[in-house]
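Aim 2 progress update. The chain analyzed this quarter is reproduced below.
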Amino acid sequence: MLFRTIATSAIGVIALAVAGATMGPQWDPVALTDPLMMESSSTVIGGPVDATPVGTYEVTTRVVPVQLDGTVIEAQISTPVGAPAGLPGIVFVHGAGTGAYVQAFKTQAHALASAGVVTMVPNKRLDTYSNRHRDYVQMARDYERSVEVLRAVEEVDPDLVGVYGESEGAWIVPVMAADHPVLAFAALISAPVVPPREQAAFAADSYLRNTGVPQGVFRAIPRAVGMAFPGGGFEYADFEVTPYQQRMAQPTFVAYGTGDASMPTVQGAQQIITDLAVAGNDQVTVRYYADANHGIRVDGEISADFVRDLSRWIDGLPATATAAPQVAGDQPHQTFRAEPVPTPRWFGDGNTVLNTVLGACGAIVVGAGVWLCARLLRRRGTGFAVGLGRPLFCLGLGSVLTVAGLVWYLFAITKLALDYDQNPWVVQGGWIGVRLLGIATVVAGAVLVNRLDDVRGDPDRQAVQGVPAVASLALVSLGSVVLLVMLAYWGVFQLGI
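Predicted structure tokens:
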């Protein structure tokens, strides 16, 4: 019996491993072989710049309304006190999540204003913005209303107003710049460049590598990111910013932190330079800041070099638009390219995946409930042959617990990855634990199969008696098999295949 159990279990694990490998795309990111070399380690904006240093002026702020289609938002304008008229201005475009002027871009807006640039931070419109729905073209139209308000400010030269987009905002700014050449300049900070789906896969890969997860976990990246998300929506995941960047004629300032693992920092700058060249635009200035993170922060503070360089660049336009060096700062490193994410062949619909898992769990629960009710009612002529009940129970419970363990593990490593943290007990130990639990479930299934085979070969014994027992065996077994196949799809039974 022991040998049969081991053999049947091995066959089951191998079959699941093969099924998991063939049911969906693998994760094989393409190495980036074209590094971007720095022309200088200094980020200082060169050329004939006679700029006003940060901190020259005191700053006064006021809040103004901005009329959008269907709503009104507030925006804070920061103005240098005592500066001459005809100043440049800049509108800040928020990244992902919520954005209010009382919290967002406070340091950047104040620093630029103290150097003679009138800044405007509008509240982000949230009534048309959610995790499931984001329309970057419409968001660009909303931010254009803020540009119109800033251009009308008395201290501002309307021909010198530009926009600043950070992270998600760097998908919105090119739409504004392409459709409104009246904008004087654009600043793209921590720009993703590629579509959101590709960006999410790239960031997941980078974060997981930093966390030190086992290689087998990476298979989940294309299978999770490549599918249509449950519940619909998320159309913006495939938004292409390249066509808009290829129509930008404005001088463009590009900045990345070399400590930002979430962005394709080398590929991003290369793509922006290439896209703007399509429009005949060579007015691109690229700067990399040592150890700065996604928000160009070092140790929690906005890089002073960054705000100095940006203010000098804005103040020196148009001369600084092509001032040498074009690319400078700390040497960035990007191991893999952000590339299109393949769509899973059989599980490309997130609703199908979710409903399949819930349906299988429901079948196991109903099957167990039917048997429990029959036992409580003491139905005669109902039961399992000796030795079948326990492995059936372990099969159903083990399948559900393994799914729960996998969900816990994925959430745990996601939190570690986002916190740039490492915990071998969770990362390595958790993965081993989930896989061992899955294998133990397969062993329970092997025991059940072998005992059913023994019973069928004995004319004096009956495997199940009564409708409740038949229903329980069928529901629990079917639900467990479905869950084991889904677990195989997400990599629990990988054998290096």
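DSSP finds 13 helices and 13 strands in the chain. The first helix runs from residue 2 to 22. These observations will guide the mutagenesis experiments scheduled for the next reporting period.
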